[in-house]
Write a structure and sequence with these properties.
The chain starts with a strand and ends in a 9-residue tail after the last helix. The protein has 6 helices and 8 strands; from the N terminus they run E-H-E-H-E-E-H-E-H-E-H-E-E-H. It folds into 2 domains: 5-103, BMC (bacterial microcompartment) domain (Alpha-Beta Plaits, 2-Layer Sandwich); 108-200, 2-Layer Sandwich (Alpha-Beta Plaits), CATH 3.30.70. 35% of the residues lie in helices and 28% in strands. The strands form 2 sheets. A 4-stranded antiparallel sheet has the order 1-2-4-3, with helices on both faces. A 4-stranded antiparallel sheet has the order 5-6-8-7. InterPro entries: BMC_CP (IPR044870), BMC_dom (IPR000249), CcmK-like_sf (IPR037233). It is found in: Bacterial microcompartment.
């Protein structure tokens, strides 16, 4: 039997208000606040996140927002007011598993969509299932799909840092992660560029699956 696979290791230095609010609204665990640091880990087999959570929580002063096991993978999110605590807990996990950050899978952008002047009917359809802010007719919309899924969280956070946009939806669990951002055309373009650059700057190994 092969050992665990580190699919995602994504450190967020300072959570932006909308990204933090989205996690807080959808999380079954501890509610994070804007300004906190956080770490996302996605592992296979999914049950490995239980061990990762145990290591992290005993190693440093962090709290978990997410501990999710789905069909293929497991996702863990931990956060703290102190960046050093989050980094220490992440390093403890890597040390216990005999891994380094470079053992993570490098993020791949599977698809992007940029839609200007969103039609009222399309806005209404998206608003039916969004968990973030409302998408308004006439806004521009950017949709990104990323693998592994949890990397979408760092892409969204960097996008919110860079531009005045609205976070409509974030989905960081499953085969692909997706985000939906809206705003003026120029602001959404800036957010898109920041999200793409954030993922392009992350090193790791290629996914052989």
């Amino acid at each position: 039997m092969s050992g665990p696979t580190l699919r995602t290791y994504a450190f967020v230095d300072r959570m932006q208000p909308q990204c933090a609010a989205h996690i807080a609204a959808t999380s079954p665990g501890d509610v994070p606040l804007a300004g906190m640091a956080e770490l996302y880990l996605e592992m296979a087999p999914g049950n490995e996140v239980f061990r990762a959570a145990d290591i992290a929580l005993k190693a440093a002063g962090v709290r978990p927002a997410l501990q999710i096991i789905e069909r293929e993978f497991g996702l863990l999110e931990i956060h703290s007011e102190q960046q050093a605590e989050v980094l220490a807990s992440g390093q403890a996990i890597l040390d216990e598993l005999g891994m380094t950050e470079s053992d993570r899978i490098k993020p791949t952008i599977a698809s992007t969509q940029f839609i200007t002047n969103v039609h009222p009917y399309q806005a209404q359809l998206l608003n039916k299932w969004r968990k973030g802010s409302m998408l308004l007719p006439g806004q521009s919309l950017f949709v990104m799909e990323v693998a592994p899924a949890a990397y979408i969280s760092i892409a969204a956070n960097e996008a919110e840092k860079a531009a005045t946009i609205t976070v409509i939806e974030l989905r960081a669990v499953g085969r692909f992660g997706r985000m939906f951002l809206a705003g003026t055309e120029s602001e959404v373009q800036t957010a898109r560029d920041a999200a793409v650059a954030a993922l392009a700057g992350m090193h790791g190994r290629e996914d052989k699956r």
